Amino acid sequence: MSENAELQTVRATIEARLAEYDPRIELIALERPGAETLRLYIDHPEGVDLDLCERVTGQLRELLESWALEVSSPGVDRPLTKPEHYRRFLGSRVRVRTTDAIDGRRNFTGTLTEADSESVSLDADGDAVRIPMAGIRRSNLIPDLGLP
User: Fold this and answer.
1) Which CATH number fits domain 3-72: 3.40.50.10540, 3.30.300.20, 2.60.15.10, 3.40.50.300?
2) Residue 108 forms beta bridges with which residues?
3) Rg for the chain (alpha carbons), in Å?
4) Which one of 6, 76, 78, 114 is most buried, counting C-beta atoms within 10 A?
5) CATH of region 83-141
6) Residue 83 host element (H or E)
7) DSSP 141
């Protein structure tokens, strides 16, 4: 099984277990920072605290036989991984990295202006950029720290 297929299988297992435990818990992102480590970013309508992270780890205890688990909140620079995430944060500043170059660039920063299941659009310093959802390698919110 390829690494990507294995990660997709693990993702499906985690999402199913979380849905059984509390359907309001959303797996935002799953990363594999090391050969035997899984990093989970979760969200919940009431917020994510240490207690919730510990409870989620407990619900996934069978994965601890094969993996070291790191469970945390998405933080202020929240990853955007699904079309509904982009729709939820329309008007927010985002950073998008693409797998292939678009007009000679792979990194875009701007205000999220549109999002559907096929693509997202940004206003990147006055330039409108449309990025296919399938071409997004990584994307996240840019924190608004209230600075001028």
Assistant:
1) 3.30.300.20
2) 96
3) 17
4) 78
5) 2.30.30.100
6) helix 83-88
7) E
Burial of 14 (0-12, 13-18, 19+ CB in 10 A): buried
Helix (H) or strand (E) holding 137: strand 136-141
Q: What is the pLDDT of residues 43-79, one digit of tens each?
A: 999 999 999 999 999 999 999 899 999 999 988 889 9
Report pLDDT digits (tens) over 88-118. Answer: 999 999 999 999 999 899 999 999 999 999 9
Tokens representing residue 102 in the block: 């678009």
DSSP, res 117: S
The set of residues, in sequence order, having a beta carbon less than 8 Å from that of 134 and lying 6+ positions away, is none
Reported as a pLDDT band with limits 50, 70 and 90, residue 147 is low
Element spanning 52, H or E: helix 50-59
Q: Give, to the nearest 10 degrees, the angle between helix 3-21 and helix 50-59.
A: 110
Give domain limits for the chain: 3-72, 83-141
